[in-house]
Amino acid sequence: MPGLFSLAVAALLVASFYGPVYRELTILGVFRKPSPAVFAENQVFYKIEDTVHCEDLHHYADRLFAACEDTPETRFGWFPPMVIFKEPPQSGSIHVIGPKTMKSTRLGFENFSGPFVTHGIDVTQDPDQKDAVYIFAVNHLPNPGYDSAGANGEDNPKARSQVELFHHVLGSSTVKHVRSIRHPLIKTPNDIYAEGPFSFYVTNDHYYREGAKRHVEDAVPAAKWSNIVHVHIGDLESTDGQSGIDVTVALTGLHNNNGLGHGQSPDEMVISSALGGTLYRAKPSRANHTISVLDSIPLDSVTDNPSYFKDPYATPSNDASGYLVAGIARPIDLPFTFTDPTAKDGVMVWYVRPNSTSVEGSTTWEKRLIFEDDGTHIRTASAAVLVGIKPQPNESKKAWLFVTGFLSESAIAVQVEL
Ligand SMILES: *[C@@H]1O[C@H](CO)[C@@H](O)[C@H](O)[C@H]1NC(C)=O
Ligand SMILES: *[C@@H]1O[C@H](CO)[C@@H](O)[C@H](O)[C@H]1NC(C)=O
Ligand SMILES: *[C@@H]1O[C@H](CO)[C@@H](O)[C@H](O)[C@H]1NC(C)=O
Ligand SMILES: *[C@@H]1O[C@H](CO)[C@@H](O)[C@H](O)[C@H]1NC(C)=O
Known about the structure:
Layout: H1 7-17, H2 21-27, E1 45-48, E2 54-60, E3 63-68, E4 78-79, E5 84-85, E6 93-97, E7 104-106, E8 108-110, E9 118-125, E10 132-139, E11 162-169, E12 174-181, E13 189-196, E14 199-204, H3 212-219, E15 227-233, E16 245-252, E17 257-262, E18 269-273, E19 278-284, E20 291-298, E21 306-309, E22 322-328, H4 334-337, E23 347-354, E24 365-373, E25 381-388, E26 398-405, E27 411-417
Parallel strand pairs: 8-12
Antiparallel strand pairs: 1-27, 2-3, 3-6, 4-5, 6-7, 9-10, 10-11, 11-12, 13-14, 14-15, 15-16, 17-18, 18-19, 19-20, 21-22, 22-23, 23-24, 25-26, 26-27
Helix pairs in contact: 1-3
């Protein structure tokens, strides 16, 4: 997420026009009353300093990467995915979080002066340098051509979002800007799935940027106008965001497609439908850059950026690998809370793995709520990853669960049993 707007309106629309409304109301959290997380004795919990409004989180090369706003005010002044266009944007930054130190470090920018309005990111290996990565990051910039006297609409948008590509040497304290990527097909970018420095996919979470039709997109599951586009980069050196790129539509037909993650095999893509409360497993084709959806896993809340935990301590009889997906307990309240820096929004984090007792050939899924809170410890969860902990003899398997939130003043880390 974000990308949700007037959900109260949405719920009304759903209730009045839709037959099977129970599932929609469940996803919106209408029946839910979140309570504060309860920690067991000895259950270690951290609020990580300097992780303000980090929407996305990726575990790569024994560290965590996040893109954060850095001050608690900026999202409430400018954030196109929530249809907030009040103040000129400020700059956030890319952070590296140590999964053992629990410390977050801002990376300094080289050759980039912002603004940087953060949202989804992805991290991918530099094929030419073993100890370096490329980082793709959505940047929701204002549209320099916006005519404030002009009509409100798709022809005169307030935002001109783009994708930034950075290069980072692991262990260094900087990220170097490589180039920007801008194209009319990248309209409401949310999250990124990178195949390498020259190839990535990006979700457009909505077709409409504002207005009544956007509410319909939020409300009506049949309004499947969001899409995923593929970008091929021919020239890493271009100083013009629009040149040296090829952009094509890779997938249409999912409702409110939102988060993207890497799955269990190198070519498995995980896609979340935020308001559809569904995780899709899919396969992008390297040959034609379209995406085939393989199966879907419905969950009982909105679903944001998905990740896959590959259990580093798996044994044939105990493999804790699974998908993680973060969501909000009562998105129905978001239209009232999203303008309030002090509001709470409860969170739900799902851990989804194959049901070990189900019969061969028909994968069913065990869906466990691995963490819940009412917004006391973390607000508006938008990404979750697990980092394994070496199992001790005769103890149950544990891991660190890291959760970020797009309106949360801090990310958290909590020890969980798998
Ligand atoms: C910044 O970009 C300029 C021109 O593209 C280049 O000459 C310079 O080396 C770059 N600086 C860094 C720190 O990479
Ligand atoms: C793209 O390639 C995949 C196989 O890699 C194939 O299944 C799919 O039908 C192709 N799609 C199009 C539109 O050609
Ligand atoms: C696993 O599958 C079995 C058989 O289909 C079912 O009875 C059980 O409830 C499932 N367990 C979970 C945790 O979903
Ligand atoms: C683990 O449990 C087994 C069986 O209960 C016991 O024999 C063994 O001593 C225990 N090991 C440790 C390290 O506690």
